[in-house]
Amino acid sequence: MKPGMTRRLLACAAVVAGLVGASVAPAAAATLKMAWAQDATGLDPHKQTAFSSIRLLELVYEPLVRLNGDLKVVPALATEWTFAPDAKTLTFKLDPKAKFHNGQPVTSADVKASFTRILDQATGAAARANYASIASIDTPDDRTVVFNLSQPDVPLLTAMGSVNAAIVPASEIAAGKIGTAAIGSGPFKLESWEPNSREVLKANSEWAGGKVGVDGIDIKVLPDENAILAALRAKQVDFALLNDPLVATLVPRVAGLTLNRKPVLSYHVLQLNPSRKPMTELAVRQAISCAIDRKDILDTALLGEGEITGPLTMPQYRSDPNTLFCYSRDLAKARKLMADAGYADGFSATVIAATGEPPTAAAEAQVIQSQLKDIGIKLDIKLMELNVYVDTWLKGDFDMAVALNGGRADPYSMYNRYWTKAGNLQKVANYIDDTLDDLMQKGRVETDPAKRKEIFAAFDRHLAEVSPWIWLYTGYAYTAQQQNVQGFVPTPDGSLFGLAKVTLK
Amino acid sequence: MNRFLTRLLDHSSGRIGGVIVLAYILIALAAQAGLTPYDPLQQFRIERLQGPSLAHWMGTDMFGRDVLSRLMIGIGQSFLVAFSSVGIAALAGTLLGLTAAWFGHLWDGLVMRLMDVLLAFPAILLALLFIAVVGPGTFTSILAIAFVYTPIFTRVVRGPALSLKARDFVDAARTFGSSTSYILSRHLMLNLVAPLTVQVTLALAWSLLTESGLSFLGLGTQPPASSLGLMLSDSVNLMEMAPWLLVFPGLAIMIGILGFNLLGDALRDILDPRSRRALA
Amino acid sequence: MNRLLSVRGLKVGFGRGNAAKTVVHGVDFDLEPGETLAIVGESGSGKSVTALSINRLIDDGGGRILGGRMEFTTARGEVIDLACATDRRMETIRGSEIGMIFQEPMTSLNPVIPIGRQIEEAFRLQRGLGRAAARLETLNALERVRIPDAERRLGYYPHQLSGGMLQRVMIAMALAANPRLLIADEPTTALDVSVQAQIMALLAELRRETGTGMIFITHDMGLVAGIADRVLVMIAGRVVEQGRLDDIFDRPRHPYTQHLLQAVPHFSHGRKVRRHMSPAGREMARPALKVEGLTVRFPATAGLLRRPVGAIHAVEGIGFDVMPGETLAVVGESGSGKSTTARALLGLVKPSSGTFSVMSAEGLARRKPMQMVFQNPYASLNPRLDVEGLLAEPVLAGGVRPDASTRQRMVALLERVGLPADSLRRFPHEFSGGQRQRLCIARALMVDPSVLVLDEAVSALDVSVQARVLDLLIDLQNELKLAYLFVSHDMAVVERIAHRIAVLYAGRIVEIGRADAVLSNPRHDYTRRLIAAVPTTERRRDVFRLETAAVPSLLRPRGYEPPEAVWQVCGEDHQVLVERAAAAKEIR
Amino acid sequence: MTYLLRRLITFPLVMLGVSVLVFVAIRLVPGDSITAMLGTEAGLLTPEQKQALAAYFGLDHSWPVQYGRWLLGVLSADLGLSVTYGKPVLDVILERFPLTLQLACLSMLIAIGIGLPLGVFAATRKERGSDLAVRIFAMIGQSTPSFVIGLMIIYVLSAGFGVLPAMGQFIPFSEDPLGNLGQLILPSLTLGLSFTASVTRISRSAMLDVLSDDYVRTARSKGATRRRVIWRHALPNALIPVVTLSGVEFGYLLGGAVLVEQIFALPGLGRMVLDAILQRDYALVQGSVLFVALNFMIVNLLVDLAYVMLDPRIRLGGRS
To answer: Which of B167, B174, B186 shows the shortest C-beta gap to C348?
Structure first.
């Protein structure tokens, strides 16, 4: 290339760079610029259950109580609460300072109206199942709400900490505007929302929870996580949510970027379908459990980004994985179990997984496939678009499924849907076990934390041993931030509520 | 046939394109026959994400699988998708275009409006919807790509078929009382081979691209099988950690498409009577 | 030195390296100012290449001048060697000193630019005129080439004008800068005979007026006789004979020139017609083909909803019969309906009314007793089938599986039409035009027809080849007692082969009868005009009359039925259509 | 002109076909709006709740009834309500469309602006070095998947220079012309590269064809220079296939350059349709596909119009 040519090319590049650079306009100093890959799918806090929606709604709406970084129940709209000893009445005192974004105070009438809405079948709130034990609601005064329960329900309190139990203005409910306008009482007001593109949040100066650290949050939806990383590099965003460990692990390599990782409640699991042969055989399921090398999957598919876990993933209830059945790979035992069950030559099965949800699903399936090959099980991987997967999953129409299932702060709320006889998702789990049902019911009634812990430890052990599913590990919730972002506290439920206290330097 | 081959070999881009395509086909066949350095599915998980070395010429992927072996198998897979989808589309398109041109009137209108409907659908959406309905996989992406290309082939065939229909030798055949099927197969089809061949090679290049695009969206070939597009999309997030995972399949796609394009250009030069006149 | 052009040892080749091929091997000639030189030759003789070499357009076509000199005297008296002038120099010579008109006026004008602008360009480029001045000049030029209504036609696009009009436009363009030399490369070959006559007349007149020297390239000796001062005959890139017109025509020395003048069909007003069948014999025999009231109309539609507005009466009430062993020539110009007639008989278009019947020699209607040979032997043979496949098709179409006897018949027929017996495995592109037409004839004869429809069957062939194919056709007719329906526009060819002639004009037969009668004593006005327009070697330096009669529109309103035809008999087997006006007069 | 009008008549017919196809196809995809919103939590719904949600999403009727209602709405320019956006479908589409339109226009500008001169240039230097160079460029441009180019550009810019076009939100040209161009120039380049390559190739071969036509020789015989012949005489004729190609490509681009929009995080129409499919926003999918189809056909009509402008043979019909 001639020198003149080079100069001209450079000049062109400079023009392009100038154009590109010019577009990175400095935003208002105290507005947090944020990016995530998946956007909320709706604004109705009672109906939206997807993580992507909840993360947004938590900044706008508030429930009565909230879970802190250690999953302890802490005040939100309610300043105090009491459980009757028989665990059949739950009383809340509301924060007198609490106000909705429209200026109205939050009263017990709003609480009653909100829960009435959740419990109304016509609303179609999926979270209703968690609050089904509420028989009636009394409002002795503006500040007091009394929930009368049809049966003892200790996990209810923790369940109240979900944004799915957010308190919305009774007037908005009456006007039928929930889901179209977001009037909550949370730290931020939703100023505009362009789904799958951007949202603008403004700090709520009248928030009862204290002063919000930033003037607002400007959220962009960048569907490709590489683009998020690039945007971080180019300082287009201050703060970002990341999903894919392959991308997240690159963050610390970039000067000036910090990666926050927090082990989460949701768990990666290989779901077996115990109603399908030969997974009906306990020995076969156990053999699979023994043949799986959880560390190996974690290291390969997630680059080691996670923690091996049993069924219970919350810190208070978690047991040492090494005490659980076959948590270190034992091929000899696995082969023997297979032989005992009459499947010495193995068998063929299909494992389903969703494309991109989690991003590691396909990789996990491939490692599992390779591991199970060692005991003669021939796995076919069937990747499905997420909704197709969910549809199939809900019908229980699979041999095995690679899944990332959501966790909850309370073991009962987390698992009653699968492992109690009346569980809503019994047909997904396809496994009925008296011991498990028994332990679950005990845990629901027991109010003493120490005893609850014992009950659920037994549950944990038994579940791992009968192996209807093969629990693998929990991953991390990742957020990445520039140096100027300070004070973010991540929580195991992946909540971004900590943004309320973040400041920009 | 021999004359044709000589002319192809005399044509510089035909020579290069032919060599590339032939090499790819040989690689694909060799891989099918098991002549890969390693089992492409074997996961050497302790050797994960290693760069190119003597043991693994193109390095290893995140499962410790040999990239070269997977590339070889992947070429076969991509070619399978490309050839089958284009084959189906060419067949369906030829049938529709030929009959539309020949019978005309209502049938022509019906077929062409239907093709308009398909063409008016954005191609990638058509493929997306199709795959969403049937579920992803090799066979589905073959059908999806075929689905997208059928209207294009229909148009490509209908035009020349219409002008062939008006040619004297077709008139001559009609004066002999030759049957419609005879005229369609011997007079029209035989003369459509040239434009079709050109279109087919170009469509092959396109479908290689489409296959990689579909795989990038997670809708193409399913793991652990490998195709060039899938290898590319799998490695996108590892781009910085393991660039060789992106570079080799990327190059393989580029060269493959280049091969088809060169071959297509050469065939156009050789088979197109217009350019032949220019040469004479 | 006042010679206009002096060419010495001109050698022209195409391609480079191994593929290099010389096509003109040393041509010499001189041209005086105002003189017309005719270069005569058949396709491949190098005549067009020679012409294109003079203004060096051969460079654009991939050719190269390999040697020789071409000394050209410009208007200012400079002498330049065109063989080695630079491209820039040539650009000032082309158009201003040397104008050129081409064979195909339809494709030689830019389809997307109005003709006015194309002519204007010539004025602006060569005479540096401004837009308004160029426009004025253009108008003058169009009037000079007798384009009526010139002002309006300036905005026309080429496709809106007929071939004759376009060739006038080309001439106007070529003469824009009053060049000293005009090269005309087969300027009338693509045109109808009466249009050809007009163009020739125009060229002659303009030459007289402007004193332009002209190189006229043609294959037609008849045209040469009309216009040339001197003649140069070429074969395969070499000059075989050149000299003054009269010397060449009266005392041709080279055998090829002799052949061109004698063996090739030239029109001679019915003096060379074939021996006729006696009228008595005609009445005795049963006609092989009998056509009555054949009418073909194409619906014409207009507007959004394709509202029918009437019909194109392409063929209107045609009737004739052809005896076994007899040739009926159907003559007419483009648009006269002669091809439509042929196509209707073969079932390629559906007649609106009328009947026809075909009888074989034995009086039995066979499955396919009528076969057709098309005009263009290049287009009527499927290029992807070998000869065996081509010849087998009529047999297959008859529902017979080709067997050994079919193959024998193929070989015999190939031999009969004069093709090598080993042709079966070869493909059409391996044959010359004449051979292909022989192949077409063999194909038509495969199923033993009694009637052969020959649609301009020799028009696309070189003149000397034409003669041989005509001889073959005549031999075959005598041998097999075939009835020919010979459709043609070429009076010279018709004179050679026809026993009887039907003249078609605007979809109707206007005159029909014995060939000698029709040709020597044409009675219908149109027939007379047509025959007058045919160039012959007998009329030297004859100036054609300039006239511009347009073919009437064939579009008729809905429900229009033409009046009954009234025939006037004017001799033994010779009748002529009485035109309506005349007929009305007679009845009165 | 009648030809164009006749084309217009087939519009509704094709649109009807498109509407039926998209309506049926999106409903054949397993998983519905409810599972799309709730994910696995949908399993917790009671039958009554399910019914309530089905009514909310408008899924509580048989397909023909749903289709009929939707079609009636469409006829009165009401494409229905998007459940994810909570807005009329038409509003959502019109919000997203400007970006895609601009992206497509810029890509086309780049493609024609670079491809056409390059193609013409190569044609006039057939078989020479520069022709070869152009052809190799065109080949490589056509052979590289656009997402690879896009990813490379993003990586090089962000890792190498720490700059990046503004992502995530569309900066309208009217508000910030420089910012708008800065945002769209790279995606347009990415998108336009293969388009440029095609235009180069098509214009080269069209030019070669035209240059061997008789009227080019005529123009030369008039004394026109090579340049004049190429630009004045040959180009208008060579443009016809280029227009065809551009029309088809432009139509596709309007349908959304999904991959490029995804990579550069641009909220365009293509990504919106993709999201709508994933979120089973039936009304939005139907509405936007219909919209895209309409665009495609309008572009085709424009191409026909361009033919008419370019080619008097179509404009004026046969001989007058």
So the answer is: B174
What does the block give as tokens for A412? Answer: 């009962």
D6 contacts chain C (CB < 8 A): yes
Scanning chain B, the segments in alpha helix (DSSP H) are: 2-10, 12-32, 67-103, 105-120, 123-134, 138-165, 168-176, 180-182, 190-216, 228-235, 244-271, 273-279
Residues A304-316 pLDDT 10s: 999 999 999 998 8
Q: From the CA of D247, how many Å to the nearest CA of chain C?
A: 20
Element (H, E) at D20: helix D2-28
Residue of chain B whose Cα is closest to the Cα of D211? B278
Domain ranges of chain C: 5-262, 279-586
Question: Mind listing the pLDDT tens digit for each residue in A477-492?
Answer: 999 999 999 989 888 8
**Domain parsing of chain D, residue ranges:** 99-269
pLDDT tens-digit map of B70-98: 999 999 888 899 999 999 999 999 999 99
Q: Say whether residue C15 is in contact with chain B using an 8 A CB cutoff.
A: no
* Residue C584 scores a pLDDT above 60: no
User: Are A45 and A168 contacting, i.e. CB atoms less than 8 angstroms apart?
Assistant: yes
Quick check: C374 and B179 CB within 8 A? no
pTM: 0.81
Choose among D14, D28, D208: nearest Cβ to B117: D14
Cβ contact, residue pair D255, B124, below 8 Å: yes
C-alpha closest to that of C573 among C529, C516, C491, C504: C516
Verify whether the Cβ–Cβ distance C160 to D319 is below 8 Å: yes
Query: What is d(CA D162, CA A17) in angstroms, rounded to the nearest whole number?
Result: 10
Closest CA to C117 of A321, D219, A254, A177: D219
> What three-state secondary structure class fits C203?
helix
Specify whether the CB–CB gap between C74 and C180 falls below 8 A.
yes
Residues of chain D with pLDDT below 70 are 1-3, 255-256, 314-320
Mark whether D and B touch (3+ CB pairs within 8 Å). Answer: yes
CB contact under 8 A, D259 and B128: no
Choosing among D5, D211, D221, D237, which should be mutated to test the C contact, i.e. which has the most C CBs within 10 A?
A: D221
Are 3 or more Cβ–Cβ pairs between C and A shorter than 8 Å?
no
Which residues are CB-contacts of C481 (< 8 A; sequence separation ≥ 6)?
Answer: C324, C325, C361, C450
CATH number of D99-269: 1.10.3720.10
The phi, psi pair for C65, rounded to 5°, reads -85, 120
Does the distance separating the beta carbons of A41 and D164 come in below 8 Å?
no
Closest residue in B to A229 (Cα–Cα): B237
- Domains, chain B: 2-279 (1.10.3720.10)
Q: Look over chain B and give the mean of its residue pLDDT values, rounded to a whole number.
A: 83
Q: What is the pLDDT of residues A156-211, one digit of tens each?
A: 999 999 999 999 999 999 998 888 889 999 999 999 988 888 899 999 999 998 89
Across the interface, of D220, D225, D313, the residue whose CB is closest to C111 is: D313
D14 in reach of chain B (CB within 8 A) = yes
Mean pLDDT of C418-429: 84
Tell me which fold the domain C5-262 belongs to: Rossmann fold (3.40.50)
Among chain D residues, CA nearest to C100: D221
Q: Distance (Å, rounded) from C-alpha C357 to C-alpha A5?
A: 80
**C37-82 pLDDT, tens per residue?**
999 988 888 888 898 899 888 888 778 888 888 999 888 888 889 8
Under CATH, which architecture does the C279-586 domain have? 3-Layer(aba) Sandwich (3.40)
Average pLDDT, chain A: 89
Q: How many residues in chain B?
A: 280
Q: Which amino acid appears at position B157 of this protein?
A: V
**pLDDT-wise least confident of A184-193, C445-454, C571-580, D74-83:** C571-580
Domains C5-262 and C279-586 in one fold: yes
